């Protein structure tokens, strides 16, 4: 299932509806992630992946960012299953409560930035110049 998207999500236009009806917290975070503002990485919002729609995803570094409001307090088992599937596909999943976005945006961005940096592909070392090494 690596990278496979459920056609029901795409065909129903679910992610478009979610983007058009974003929460205040999602809009606030999106303003800080869009346009490669964070470590030069591209984020997608409401990105379909498997049977799920990810709030924010950086596909090149496989970082998923999920925002949880009060309704997620009862969804711990669902979130756990979802996180396990994403981790199996190679993603790191970062979860934040909506109030963290409002009260500590810089701290949230720092956590995301650190995850992006840890998953960056460093350039291979340059071979020695002729006559060196």
Structure description:
This protein has a four-stranded mixed beta sheet with strand order 1-2-3-4, with helices on both faces. The chain has helices at residues 7-11, 14-20, 24-33, 76-88, 98-103, 105-118, and strands at residues 44-49, 52-58, 63-68, 92-97. By secondary structure, it is α+β, with helices and mostly antiparallel strands. The longest helix is centred in the C-terminal third of the chain and has 14 residues, at 105-118. It is globular, with a radius of gyration of 17 Å. The protein has a single domain, classed as 3-Layer(aba) Sandwich (Endonuclease, Chain A).
Write the layout of secondary structure elements.
Layout: H1 7-11, H2 14-20, H3 24-33, E1 44-49, E2 52-58, E3 63-68, H4 76-88, E4 92-97, H5 98-103, H6 105-118
Parallel strand pairs: 3-4
Antiparallel strand pairs: 1-2, 2-3
């Amino acid at each position: 299932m690596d990278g496979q998207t459920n056609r029901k999500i795409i065909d129903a236009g679910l992610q478009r509806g979610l983007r058009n009806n974003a929460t205040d917290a999602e809009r606030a975070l999106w303003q800080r992630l869009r346009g490669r503002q964070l470590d030069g990485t591209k984020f997608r919002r409401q990105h379909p992946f498997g049977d799920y729609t990810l709030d924010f995803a950086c596909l090149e570094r496989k970082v998923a960012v999920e925002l949880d409001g009060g309704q997620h307090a009862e969804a711990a088992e669902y979130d756990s299953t979802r996180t396990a599937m994403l981790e199996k596909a190679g993603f790191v999943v970062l979860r934040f409560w909506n109030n963290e976005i409002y009260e500590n945006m810089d701290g949230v961005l720092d956590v995301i930035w650190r995850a992006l940096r840890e998953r960056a592909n460093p350039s291979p070392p340059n071979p020695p110049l002729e006559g060196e090494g």
